[in-house]
Amino acid sequence: MPAHQLAPDIPDAPADVLADEQAHLAESREALRAMRAHAQSLSADAAGDWVSQQILQGLLDQRVAALADHPDTPLFFGRLDRSGGDELPTTIYVGRRHVHDGTSRPLVIDWRAPVSRAFYQASPAEPMGVVRRRRFGYHGGALTAYEDEPLAEGGQIGPSRILTEEIERPRTGPMRDIVATIQPDQDEIVRSALAQTVCVQGAPGTGKTAVGLHRAAYLLFTHRERLARSGVMIVGPNRAFLSYISSVLPALGEVKVDQTTVAGLLGEHAAPEDPEVAAVKGDARMAKVLDRALWLHVVKPEEGVVFTKGAYRYRVADHEVREIVASLRGTTRYAPGRAALAQRLAHQVLVRMEQRGESPDDRVQDAVARSKPVRQLVDAVWPKLTPEQVLFRLLSEPEFLARAAKADLSPEEQERLLWAKPYRSWKSAKWSAADAALLDELADLMERTPSLGHLVVDEAQDLSEMQLRALGRRCRNGSATVLGDLAQGTTPWSATTWEAVLTHLGQEGEVTELTLGFRVPREVLDYAARLLPSIAPGLAAPRSLRPGAGSLSVRESGEDGEDREGGDVLAAVRDALGREGSIGVIAPDALVPEVAATLAGAGLAHAVLSPDSAEEHRLLVVPATLAKGLEYDHVIVVEPADIVEAEPRGLARLYVVLTRAVTTLTVVHRKPLPAQLTA
Ligand SMILES: Nc1ncnc2c1ncn2[C@@H]1O[C@H](COP(=O)(O)OP(=O)(O)OP(=O)(O)O)[C@@H](O)[C@H]1O
């Protein structure tokens, strides 16, 4: 039954309940308009100077923008009738934002407020002071239905139709927020304390990404001032994924959250690299190697400094310089250590000036620190360096690498690290994605990387230990939400335990699990789960909320050539076009041009998803390596055997690809399917 035809579920509900609720919606909308008009009428002129005026105007503009009413987005989606006993109203409406009337009476309460928690958590077993929970159904922006759950009478409540319809809704366009239907176990994660790092293991479609985004929104609401200063960032696997999730936080009123990729954060280096080399570079042992490599540049001073002023010469003896260097080494980061060395040498010169009866001030000390003899000594003993210079030496000079690596890397590993064809200089070197994390580690050894207040890391199972360290630096004074699925690890260095991920991230946190799938129909999930014993034997088979009978079809095109397979893909696409919702044709990367050509040849308009693009088209051709995190109503997977063959963890890639479907999955193949799927 569509939502707008839902009947009231309580037998004695007055017929005009819906009309009353619609009136409350109209009143709330009007009140929001008034709040916005009031914000617009405020002037920044009250601020004293021009700069303060600009800052205040910026804040007022933000406030006005945040108070915009989006007619298609329900202003509230739930109502709680409470038994009272506290200072809060007995009836509250739960919505995306707070709305109050001219007398400050709350008409809608933000879903993130403490009192709204009961909307998500209350049950007949634990009613949390709620007598009745009401869920609203919308059609466009119009309130068209409601559904009641009595909580004070014990017993059980059946499944919510409004929730089921939301989950069954066909997917089109980018990801949407789930504020109206967050489940109790998801809500626990969303509302965990700011100081707490949470790590969520979850099968495909259990809502990990959704939960991470809502947690960011929750934390920003609850700790607005603190996080406005320190910042919240979302890190996802690629730009296509970021574009898919990009509208969730703005829809929740949060526009100031950076959403980026690891490459966006560490540098867009992408020189091709043998995965075996990348695996050594991604190993946490590299941290020690880099530390030694950097500090090997600080050499034992053999000479002192002579500073001449007028007729006088002030000398700091070599053994004194050695003492200063020794006392600084290991106690500061590299760059401040270098600055401190110059200052300490200058200080020694000043002491001698004072002994001679002069009274030099701070300016003299700075001048001495910047003088030529001091600079020359500092450059010789503690040279100015960039991360690129250090890594360049490490990857091109075998002896230097051996001194830095000591026993931490085997001779074979060292051999692997060295560039087969060294570059002429660090300036012309082409860095790989794995190098980016090494450069970042070196940068942090030189100068402390600032920390954010909270970091959400999605698809974290794919990150190398060195990448995790790089992300860990960015939340070392804050906390993190770490999301992923060990079964979906597709890099050679994919994590095998979450404890290890947290260790490299430098965070102590709890690992929790989400087990109920909201995306993939049961039949499809069971099919994909046949791969689990081979890719993640420790994980339990995922469960799906959606039965989806008839959602799976596997078509073999036989040995008689590609034409038949192309024909099968076309037939599946045409089938899907006749139904509602988005269509993703997921093909091995190497077959993408061929599949696109087949569609074009048949006159079927489509787009091809690329790593940097925000392609929006109902029919998309998706390279297998870009499918992670995405979903389509109808998924057509082309030639699974080639997907498996294409990379070392190809079976895990296939698992990712098979779990993108919301409504139907069609597998089209000519080559035999991987044995695990047919078992
Ligand atoms: N409580 C919920 N109510 C309605 N829809 C939900 C809920 N939780 C998740 N979903 C929907 O289920 C789908 C899958 O969610 P999401 O992409 O967050 O899962 P995931 O665990 O990150 O999946 P994957 O591991 O495949 O990346 C999305 O369409 C999301 O909106």
UniProtKB/TrEMBL annotation:
Name of the protein this chain belongs to: DNA helicase IV
GO molecular function term, any single one: helicase activity
InterPro entries linked to this entry: DNA_helicase_UvrD/REP (IPR000212), P-loop_NTPase (IPR027417), UvrD-like_ATP-bd (IPR014016)
Keyword tags: ATP-binding, Helicase, Hydrolase, Nucleotide-binding
Binding site residues for ATP: G202, A203, P204, G205, T206, G207, K208, T209
Domain of life, source organism: Bacteria
Annotated segments matching region Disordered: 546-566
Domain UvrD-like helicase ATP-binding: 181-521
SUPFAM superfamilies the UniProt entry points to: P-loop containing nucleoside triphosphate hydrolases (SSF52540)
